Amino acid sequence: MEQEKVAISGMKCSGCADKVKNAFEQLAGVSDVQVSLADKQASFVGKASLAELNATLAETHYQVEKIID
Q1: How far is 69 from 62, CA to CA, in rounded Å?
Q2: What angle do CA 14, 24, 38 make, to 5 degrees?
Q3: CATH fold of the domain at 3-68
Q4: CA spacing 20 to 30 A to 19: which of 2, 9, 13, 65?
């Protein structure tokens, strides 16, 4: 499986990063989720579209801005 990296807006504290991590861990086919508050990025093993990632974060105040190559 490929490792994906995404930019996330709206995270301001470690609690925010934990919410993003927990949300992404609920996605089928996604594992090894790591979230960096300092870099405002998340990485994970698996495949998910921008729409799927944002739908997962719909109830939070965070948004996936882009998939980083």
Answers
A1: 20
A2: 30
A3: Alpha-Beta Plaits (3.30.70)
A4: 2
